[in-house]
Amino acid sequence: KAAEKGGYPHFMIKEINEQPRALRDILTGRIAPDFSGVDLQEVSLTAEQIKNIRKIAVVACGTAYHAGIVGKYVMEKMLRIPVEVDIASEFRYRNPLIDAHTLTVIISQSGETADTLAALKEAKARGSRVVAITNVVGSSIAREAHDVVYTWAGPEIAVASTKAYITQLLGIYLLTLFLGKELGRIPAGEMTDILHHLYQLPKQAQDILDHLNEQLNKMAEIFNQWEDTFFVGRGLDYAVALEGSLKLKEISYVHAEAYAAGELKHGTLALIVKDVPVLALCTQPDVFEKTVSNIKEIKAREAHVIGVAFEGNKEIGKSVDEVIYIPETLPLLAPVLTVIPLQMLAYYASVHRGCDVDQPRNLAKSVTVE
Ligand code: G6P
Hints:
By secondary structure, this protein is α/β, with parallel strands linked by helices.
């Protein structure tokens, strides 16, 4: 076991550290050398079929579901096609409105989750084309789907998903760019710009691992004193807040609630008390001012606010107690980088609290029963 962990104390931190490599692997051979588009030869959808897509249904469980929520923001923005995201166990029992004009995107690390597999079969039975984004070659989901985008993250052992999530995000970006080019919805200049930024992500992920480790280890000590915490953000930051809060809950057993920042005053603000830790994700410029005004509401209750923002964002420092700075990328791609410090915070919180990092109580890596 020790050898399998490659010198790391836990599989989770090993897998967190493998993320730059995983990002590189999923991009390999998929970005055109002139940065004009993506090569997804494995997706056999014809131009005609793509033009006929009226709706995209994304279905998954757990962390993969959170990747799907990022997918909704990304695909709707780029493709201007309505996207629904469903938890697989909800989708399969609600008589979903799926037909031959729906593209179903199934996301699953293992490719074996029972509810997700059943949802896939349900979508197919209703005439929908199915693209699976999965990590395991030859898995049940890979075999059932019409097309598969493999995430090439390598085996993920820790129950809490890290490198699988980050590569699922990349799978979504690649699929979106592929569909967007076919639909003529992404101007050439924008395509090139996005691809150049995608290409930078492995190095930027490495920078986060190299430079933030000590800060995050120390910062996580706050969870020795608190059993509750909150993650807030808007848009894509909200999608990552969901995943950040799940990571912390899963492995450190600290109760964490993710809220769309604008929704806070409709509920959870009542629970914000003096010194309670609040993670505030602020990478989306079009809603930055709005999020800052939500942070002011939180600060008025004297909570301890930790901001997550791009390097060079000086504004945020005026409103929060501490800042986690991540390398700058396009706001569209921010989830790939913002999630890394949140994974590390969860990891160190789990270690400090003496929890079983890789095998949290009551959870399984792959849920193959209902
Ligand atoms: C379990 C795991 C989660 C995972 C979920 C979906 O609950 O503990 O980490 O996100 O299943 O698994 P899948 O293999 O379908 O992505």
